[in-house]
Amino acid sequence: MNWMTSETLLKKYLQELEQNQYDIHTVTCYENDLKDFYRWMGQKDDQAAEISGQAAADYLTYLMNEKESRDSTLNRKKISLGRYLQWLTDRGLDLQKAVIPFQTRKIERLKEPRRLKREEVDRLIQSLNEEYEDADTEFKKRISLRDSIMFELLFYHGLQIQELVALRTEDFNPEKRTIRIMDKKGFIRTERIYSDRLYRKLLLWMEGRQEFADRNAAYRDVLFLTKLGTPVSVKFLVAIFQKYKELTGITQDATPLFLKHSLKWYAQIVLKENLSSGGYHEIDG
């Protein structure tokens, strides 16, 4: 069947999907996949090209080799095309071949990511707070203060590591007790600091960080600085994580990915607790 004469059938097919009460998002996906296929057919030199399983296979091969489409995309499009070809066949239309001779690759289910246990997170935060309380010099106290604030923001407020290291001093609003956060897509959200202890520690850090800020004018407005006056980095945070996990007897590997999974999982738990209790979960220390 010529692809140009079958475009009206495509509209009828999509209408039938809606009439059969398919989810609107499913119908939209089918429509987009099939229209992409038709556009590809229209770009071929042969205007008499036939709709068939082989044509669909050629299209999927094009997506795989030239567009480098993901396996999940190829599998989805094969399903969309296969069901459409079967629909055409069921209505007595003469296709050269309805079966698509294209071997989609098996998508392996990802294993559950390794992460910290709930009690391990609590011990980690507890250790950070104790280090701050037990510091015997102002310098050590300032360093411990910074570390405890950063990890409480990561675990209790669900900040991504990249979001944390990108914070500027102007993002913290002491009057409103909020922190302004920009994600990797440029969207801005505001987190309120519900913990009185964390809020007080942030106020102390805003004063104490000045000594670090004076050491490097280029980064004066970065919120979290190293003792050299440079911004903390992902590698720097992982090193701190490594230090405190060893102090608390945590045996898991300290990698950025491991830390990321632990942060995301723990933040979801804290969020649920806050919504159910109307409060803010924090560890006394």
Outline the structure in words.
By secondary structure, this protein is mainly alpha-helical. It is built from 11 helices and 3 strands, in the order αααααααβββαααα. The chain has a 3-stranded antiparallel beta sheet with strand order 1-2-3, with no helix packed on it. Strand 2 (178-182) and strand 3 form a beta hairpin. Helix 1 runs antiparallel to helix 2, helix 2 crosses helix 4 (71-90) and helix 5 (118-134) runs antiparallel to helix 6. The longest helix has 22 residues, at 256-277. It is elongated. It starts with 6 loop residues before the first helix and ends in an 8-residue tail after the last helix.
Evaluate the radius of gyration. 28 Å
Main sheet, how many strands, which sense, barrel?
Answer: 3 strands, antiparallel
End-to-end gap: 74 Å
Which spans have pLDDT < 50 for at least 5 consecutive residues?
A: 277-285
Residue share in β-strands? under 5%
Number of helices: 11
Number of strands: 3
Fraction in helix? 55-70%
- N-to-C order of helices and strands: HHHHHHHEEEHHHH
Structural class: mainly alpha
Order of strands across the biggest sheet? Answer: 1-2-3
Write down the overall geometry. Answer: elongated
The residue-averaged pLDDT reads 80
List the helices and strands and how they pair.
Layout: H1 7-19, H2 24-42, H3 53-65, H4 71-90, H5 118-134, H6 138-157, H7 161-165, E1 172-173, E2 178-182, E3 188-192, H8 196-208, H9 210-213, H10 234-247, H11 256-277
Helix pairs in contact: 1-2, 2-4, 3-4, 5-6, 6-8, 6-11
